[in-house]
Design goal:
The complex is a heterodimer. Chain A has helices spanning 2-13, 24-29, 34-63, 72-94, 96-102, 105-108, 113-124, 129-157, 169-184. Chain A is mainly alpha-helical. Chain B is mostly helical. Chain B has one domain. In chain B, 65% of the residues lie in helices and 2% in strands. In chain B, strand 1 (157-158) and strand 2 form a beta hairpin. Classes of the chains: A mainly alpha, B mainly alpha.
């Protein structure tokens, strides 16, 4: 039951993009077309869940064991970079269809702060392994949900006439604000 | 080199000011700009990392192999971020707590990595230093300004000084999450209006 509450809070209430402000560069960068938005969401879901598990294990069985918590930042980013590289090579070799689908989004994930952010949140909130797993999955799903919803809205905006100074990123940000307002309504739930 | 050092420095303050002109580094800009103090604190921490990593990348640019350059950049950046983290924990603990997860996340701030890749890796030491300083200051200014707007509109005060008069009802929307997006979007619009003349 607690896990369900955790999942709902991670997907809606503390949505990684709209409430925690993590991963906003790809949020604005890849949301102009539905296709790229879906590609990016898939790649993030894939990597975030794996990264969440691996960094949790790194923290618990390596950094904590030897009292090296001050090396957390540097070791997490290396673990994530290595993971992304590994996933890329593995997919290229064995599942070329998926690799082609994710395309250039995969290498970009190394510098996606949503991935690193969730890993750090998992440690900060002192989640157990199962909780960390659930939170990683839910945050990733929340990311995908917000990105795909936003891409849908943004495709419509392309058809609308927007005043010149507001065009492109500016109207994008304001739209994101409206979407964030919608997600804000979930706040009382958990 | 076509540009002088001064030009490398000043371009970060207006022409290429992040996160407005270069749409990079949005996450810290949105996440910590609830008050001016937070924004400026975050800006200074980022500036420090940016300058140090620019210097180091520029010094080692002939040694770092092209193929593994991104990983090298990330290690350099992560080292300085760890340094900032420990320093802030020691000297400005309250600010450290407020900025929270965003301090270690400077590692994945695209502004820092972007400057290492786009500038420091191709340029000599002094221009890289000027570039780091300029972009860093620009980022600090932008975060400070955004923080100021949000704090004044959202609470009616800045640093505890009431600026809007006693009859002003705080527009709390601005300090909440959705307000961050709208405030940044409107500021971007304003910059476009001024810049396009």
């Amino acid at each position: 039951m607690e896990l369900i509450v955790l999942a709902i809070s991670c997907i809606f209430v503390n949505n990684i993009l709209l409430a925690q402000f993590l991963g906003n560069c790809p949020f604005l960068g890849t949301s102009k077309k539905m296709e790229t938005a879906i590609g990016m969401s898939m790649a993030v879901i894939f990597v975030l869940v794996m990264a969440g598990i691996i960094t949790w294990v790194t923290e618990e069985y390596f950094l904590k064991q030897y009292g090296l918590q001050y090396l957390r930042t540097i070791s997490f980013i290396l673990v994530i970079a290595a993971l992304v590289q590994f996933v890329e090579m593995f997919l290229k070799k064995s599942i070329p269809a998926l690799y082609a689908g994710l395309g250039i989004f995969l290498p970009l994930i190394t510098t996606n702060c949503a991935v690193m952010g969730v890993c750090l949140i998992n440690i900060k909130e002192e989640y157990t392994f199962i909780e960390a797993l659930v939170s990683s999955i839910s945050y990733a799903v929340g990311f995908g949900l917000a990105l795909v919803l936003f891409a849908g809205v943004r495709e419509r905006i392309l058809l609308a006439r927007v005043p010149r100074p507001l065009q492109d990123t500016s109207i994008g940000l304001i739209t994101a604000g409206m979407l964030a307002l919608a997600f804000y309504a979930f706040k009382g739930m958990v | 080199m076509a540009k002088t050092l001064a030009q490398e420095f000043t371009k970060g303050l207006w022409d290429e000011i992040p996160p407005f002109r270069l749409v990079l580094g949005l996450c810290p800009a949105l996440g910590v700009s609830t008050t001016m103090e937070n924004g400026i604190g975050m800006g200074i921490a980022t500036t420090f990392v940016l300058i140090c990593s620019n210097i180091l990348v520029s010094l080692f640019r002939n040694i770092i192999p092209t193929k593994v350059r991104i990983v090298c950049f990330i290690i350099i950046i992560a080292t300085f971020v760890t340094l900032v983290e420990l320093l802030m924990q020691a000297y400005t603990y309250e600010l450290f707590l407020k900025l929270g997860v965003f301090i270690p996340l400077i590692v994945v701030n695209c502004v820092v990595l972007g400057r290492a890749e786009a500038f420091a890796y191709k340029n000599k030491l002094l221009p890289s230093l000027a570039d780091g300083l300029g972009i860093g200051l620009g980022f600090t200014m932008a975060l400070g300004a955004l923080g100021f707007v949000r704090e004044v509109l959202g609470t009616g005060a800045c640093y505890g000084v009431n600026l809007m008069g006693s009859s002003y009802k705080p527009f709390t929307f601005m300090v909440e999450a959705p307000g961050a997006f709208v405030a940044l979007g409107l500021m971007l619009c304003l910059m476009n209006m001024v810049g396009k003349k």
